[in-house]
Amino acid sequence: MTKEKRQRIKQGGLFIPWVFSFGAELEGLSNSEFLEDPTKLSNALRSIHNYFQADGVVCYGDVSLLAEALGSRPPSLNSTTVSEPLKKLPENFEEYLEILPQAPRIAVALEVTKRLNILLPETLLLSVIPGPVTLACQLTGQTVDEVCADSKLLGVASKAVLVLTKALGDAGIDLLIVHENALPSLSQTEIYKQLRRSYIPIWNTAKFYEISPLLMLQEWLPENAEILHKLVSGVVYPANQLPANQTSSKSLAVSIPTSLLEKAPEKIHEFLDSHGVSNMIAASNLFLLTTDSEIPQDIHKEHMIRGIKALRDVLKKVA
């Protein structure tokens, strides 16, 4: 990591929306062209960065990538099914993890990261990957509770996420969002301990590579809010679920609804003010501002561009 990048991360106040597959729309590419060609993908992501001038670029943001590489077939464009899970994990599953970085789509993700480090040497690179619980659910079709009750399955999924984290570290990413669709109640001691065993190696590995890791949840359980920061160091809080005692944290990562980007600038300002995000920025207590999900390809393009500009201006003005 360069000295400039290290200083920018330390400074905080980062704005990096989860813009990834929208690049195919901007560049007039099909999904397959976008996801399978590292040259076109790198160029599209560079164009996105040059256009929006955010503080970083999502160099890979497809949370189904890892499950697909491990054998869970993703849905076709005409399918309403979430995915086609494996009936059971193969006997040699853990052996396959050793060559996981060579899987075609994984190899593309790593190559894109390396190229963006050359094309955008001073730009922060963020990757979004599935967490162990979500990956195990994607692979087997089991529920969150079922996965968390199967320590062996969760352990194998954790190893897969760890392997990908190492590979991304070698490729040169700077920020990592570990995305979970949901977590069970952490008030259950055994569940908490099991999840901590899953996350700690991933977090330690990320920090070894000077990567800033963050846990993001699609479904937020308010009862877990006070425990999450003990589970891992670095949580992306929804703007409407900010912790009451913010002074205990040097800086917080915050997500805003993707739909907010389509609102008029005054509505965006109103949302940030009413949820205390503007105050966080003014107090230099914001580490990262991002969207709570990937920006969809069918979003209103002009409105999104206007929304991103409004958010960027708020960060500059208030800070």
Q: Can you give the helix content as a percent range?
A: 40-55%
State the separation between the terminal residues, measured CA to CA: 25 Å
Mean pLDDT: 88
CATH topology label = TIM Barrel
* Shape, per Cα inertia axes: globular
**The CATH C-level class name:** Alpha Beta
Largest sheet, strands/sense/barrel:
8 strands, parallel
The assigned CATH architecture is: Alpha-Beta Barrel
Task: Write out the strand line-up for the largest beta sheet, numbering strands in chain order.
Answer: 1-8-7-6-5-4-3-2
Strand content: 5-15%
Poorly predicted residue ranges:
74-83
Radius of gyration: 19 Å
Element pattern in H and E: HEHHHEHHHEHHHEHEHEEHHEH
Word description of this protein:
There is one protein chain. It contains 15 helices and eight strands. It is an alpha/beta fold and about 325 residues long. The chain has one domain: Alpha-Beta Barrel (TIM Barrel). The chain has an eight-stranded parallel sheet with strand order 1-8-7-6-5-4-3-2. Strand 4, helix 11 and strand 5 form a beta-alpha-beta unit. Helix 10 runs parallel beside helix 11. The longest helix is centred in the middle third of the chain and has 21 residues. The chain is globular and about 55 Å long. About 5% of the residues have low confidence.
Helix/strand layout:
Elements: H1 3-11, E1 14-15, H2 22-27, H3 31-36, H4 38-52, E2 56-60, H5 65-69, H6 93-96, H7 104-119, E3 124-130, H8 132-140, H9 144-148, H10 151-171, E4 175-180, H11 189-208, E5 212-217, H12 225-231, E6 235-238, E7 252-256, H13 265-274, H14 277-282, E8 286-291, H15 301-318
Parallel strand pairs: 1-8, 2-3, 3-4, 4-5, 5-6, 6-7, 7-8
Helix pairs in contact: 4-7, 7-10, 8-10, 10-11
